Amino acid sequence: MKKRIFSKGLFAILLFINQLSFAAAITWNGSVSTDWSNAANWTGGLPTSADDVTIPIGLTNYPVLASNTSIKSIFLVNTAASLTINSGAVLDISTTLSCRGSIQNFGTINVNEGSQFELNGIFTNKTTGVFNSIIPVVNGAYGIKLFNLSRIVNEAGGVINATGSRGLFIQGDNTALTMLSNSGMINLTGGIEKYTDNLINETCGIIKLITFSNFYRGEIINQAGLVQNNGYFDIQYNLTNNAGASNFVNDGLIKIGNTAGTFTNNKLRVRNNPANATFMTIGTSNNLVVDGIYTDLATTVSAGTYSLTTNVFTPATLPSGSQTLYAKITYGACSFIAPITYVPLPVFTSQYTDRNLCTGASEVLNLPATDAISYQWQSSSFANMNAPTNLSTSAGSTTILGNASFANKYIRCTALNNTGSVFSDVFRVIVSSAVTAPTAVSSSKNNLCSGVSASLSATCAVGSAKWYDQATGGTALATSSPFVVTPSATTTYYAACENTACFSSRVSQAITVVNAVATQTLVSPTNDITADAGVLLAGNNITASNKIETTGKATFQTGKYVELNAGFEAKNGAVFQAIIQAVCNN
């Protein structure tokens, strides 16, 4: 029984292996030449975009690609297998590039939307070479994976672009081998994860680690082995180095966008969100030159002045808000442009002058500033703000009080952000004594003739009198006592006591204005009086030749005399009187 089962199992395995042999990849044989496009050099026919390609060992001729070609995958089986892509040629691979041999790329290789580039051999990206490993970031794969004794050499002018959850993964045999040597340009979305051996960014080489999202960030994690930067290393997010400071060395230009772990900086570090007073981190052996800080990538518009000697950036007039500036840095024959996220110093949108408070009163001050992260209010007994005392740290506002703690103190607000801090204008707090309503409010005259002046007066125990035209609000008329007025009509004036910022209630004083003519002449029948005519006034005299009927009633009042001429008659039943008395206050 056991023997039969074993035979069936063995048969099934042999059948499966036999089936796999029929599904084998198209294989390079090189029987004619090194020409990829010659079908005679292939076993299984010239590869197409649907085919898996294998390049074996033990051959005399190895393929050289000189034209554009698309395949599904390619596998170089051993160190003796090789592939050359000529300048101008493009090899498109839809799934996997796996190399245990050697590849020399003078043209373009695209690994598209499939698996990663797995290297257990040597990949040389020549001066004209472009390599793109376009792996969907969210699928968890790496753009490029280096194993064992594999190496990538990217020559000056060569370009490597790789995306993935990590753009590059390195785990060799821990033999201190330089598994990546870069003299060209390498762009890695998702960063680098390195566990062994060495990575060297050569002089003039540029490596950029690009953030895709909060989960796939442009960072480097160095667990062991050396990372040596002699060119420009742009890390958009974190530098994590668990191999010790001596195993991550910057002898060129490095930029770290977020947290910088332990590393050795011998040359120059560009800071992100820098302070004006510490714009870069300068190593003890730095010989890089900062040519300028610019607002544009073309480095044509200056953003301000920077001095390596003082490490201070003095910005030109820049817009508010976070923006990208560009540092142009040269190093021998190398020239780098490093983007810097920069927020200008805060700018106060308003300012205060001296504040006047009445005893016991309070005032909320508010001084918002553009681009400010935090605020610090301070007071001092000195106009130069010597020995200040910290007050509120709230968002641009504080409360001052009308008491001894604030009286005659100088106040300022400090607005801060990562770039630095700025002070508001300094202003003083003046506290005034409280006041009560005025007393002895009076007028020198009342019942004024039109055009005649009177003198108003009021007494204040504290402060001084101020006159208004309304009981509340209104217009301030004068700040003196006495106050001389010449009203043209009956008017009420209001007096208050004020002491800078202290105001009392108001007390009224009315002045009646009498509008009387100098002379009146009454004739009959025009001015005959048949009813109650009241008081007829004249400042000088009244001359009458009219009649006052039996139903009439009148009083003549003049300042000098009443003259009754022929024709004047006060009939039986009429009421009439004459008064010689001043009609108004002159």
Write up what this structure looks like.
The chain has about 575 residues and is mainly beta. It folds into five domains: about 30-275; about 275-345; about 345-430, Immunoglobulins (Immunoglobulin-like, Sandwich), CATH 2.60.40; about 440-515, Immunoglobulin-like, CATH 2.60.40; about 520-580, no CATH class. The radius of gyration is 50 Å and the shape is rod-shaped. The termini are far apart. The relative contact order is 0.05.
Count of distinct structural domains = 5
Strand pairing plus helix content: what structural class? mainly beta
What's the Cα radius of gyration? Answer: 50 Å
Query: What's the arrangement of strands in the largest beta sheet?
Result: 2-1-3-6-9-12-15-18-21-24-27
Which word captures the global form? rod-shaped
Could you report the average pLDDT, rounded to the nearest whole number? 90
Distance N to C terminus: 148 Å
Give the fraction of residues assigned to helices.
Answer: under 10%
Give the low-confidence spans: 1-24
Share in β-strands: over 45%
Please specify the SSE layout and strand pairing:
Layout: H1 2-22, E1 26-28, E2 42-43, E3 52-55, E4 64-65, E5 69-71, E6 73-76, E7 82-85, E8 90-93, E9 97-99, E10 102-105, E11 108-112, E12 117-119, E13 122-125, E14 130-134, E15 142-148, E16 151-154, E17 159-163, E18 166-172, E19 178-182, E20 185-189, E21 192-194, E22 198-201, E23 206-210, E24 220-222, E25 227-229, E26 232-235, E27 239-241, E28 248-250, E29 253-256, E30 264-265, E31 268-275, E32 278-282, E33 289-294, E34 302-307, E35 312-315, E36 323-331, E37 334-342, E38 347-348, E39 355-358, E40 362-366, E41 369-370, E42 374-380, E43 389-390, E44 397-401, E45 410-417, E46 420-423, E47 427-432, E48 439-443, E49 448-449, E50 454-459, E51 464-468, E52 476-478, E53 483-485, E54 491-499, E55 502-503, E56 507-511, E57 513-514, E58 519-523, E59 532-538, E60 541-545, E61 547-548, E62 553-558, E63 561-564, E64 569-570, E65 575-580
Parallel strand pairs: 1-3, 3-6, 4-7, 5-8, 6-9, 7-10, 8-11, 9-12, 10-13, 11-14, 12-15, 13-16, 14-17, 15-18, 16-19, 17-20, 18-21, 19-22, 20-23, 21-24, 22-25, 23-26, 24-27, 25-28, 26-29, 28-30, 29-31, 39-47, 49-57, 58-60, 59-62, 60-63, 61-64, 62-65
Antiparallel strand pairs: 1-2, 31-32, 33-34, 33-36, 34-35, 36-37, 38-41, 40-44, 42-43, 42-45, 45-46, 45-47, 48-50, 50-53, 51-52, 51-54, 54-55, 54-56
Protein name: Ig-like domain-containing protein
Pfam families: Ig_7 (PF19081)
Signal peptide: 1-23
